[in-house]
Amino acid sequence: METLVKRNETGQAVTTSLLVAEKFEKEHRDVLKSIRNLTAQNCAVLSMFVETTYLNEQNKQQPMFVMNRDGFSLLVMSFSGEKALQFKLDFIEAFNSMDAILRNNDTLRISAVEENIKRRYLLSRELRDVNSQITALMKRHDAIKKEQRAIDSEDFMQLSLYPRYEAFTPLKNEFPNKNKMLPN
């Protein structure tokens, strides 16, 4: 079947009425007649077939159809004979295999989505816990800062009463902004 399908200039998979006639051991004129009957019965089928020409062995232009996958399938489904029956069986097998693959993929996708939902729920709970810890730590941070300011303010007030500590270098290095903390 690989030699039956070609790519056209736009990259679409196509075949011709000549190749179909050859592969299914049919007369080309009978294949042309089948295509014309299909296109006459339903205008939706027209887009699946493009009439063109080819040069035969006598160098004469002869009619031919180029068809896409849908046109090919529709045409071949109307054929009878051993090769047509084999094609139909192969087509059914391929269809069933693809259906099973798609169903399996759906199951895998659903499982993946369910796992992601569970993971997102766990992450939300963990994030809520982390936010609670951050809030508690920020409250503790603020309390520590407040207590430090209270101690610094009280100690600097006490030290300001003793001028000899004014020049004490470690105190200047530890509390460079002590003057801002002292009451006026």
Provide the fold topology.
Layout: E1 6-7, E2 13-16, H1 17-23, H2 28-41, E3 49-55, E4 61-68, H3 69-77, H4 82-160, H5 169-174, H6 178-181
Antiparallel strand pairs: 1-2, 2-4, 3-4
Helix pairs in contact: 1-2
Quick structural overview:
Helix content is 65%, strand content 11%. The chain has 184 residues and is an alpha+beta fold.
Descriptive report:
By secondary structure, the chain is of the alpha+beta class. It has a domain of 78 residues. The protein has a four-stranded antiparallel beta sheet. A hairpin with a 5-residue loop joins β1 and β2. The longest helix has 79 residues. The chain starts with 5 loop residues before the first strand and ends with a helix.
Total beta strands: 4
State the secondary-structure class. alpha+beta
Mean pLDDT across every amino acid position: 81
Order of H and E elements: EEHHEEHHHH
Q: Classify the helix fraction into a percent range.
A: 55-70%
Assign an overall shape. Answer: rod-shaped
Largest beta sheet, briefly?
4 strands, antiparallel
Low-confidence parts lasting 5 or more residues at pLDDT below 50? none
Report how far apart the termini are.
Answer: 99 Å
Fill in the keyword field for this structure:
184 residues, single chain, alpha+beta, 6 helices, rod-shaped, four-stranded antiparallel beta sheet, 11% strand
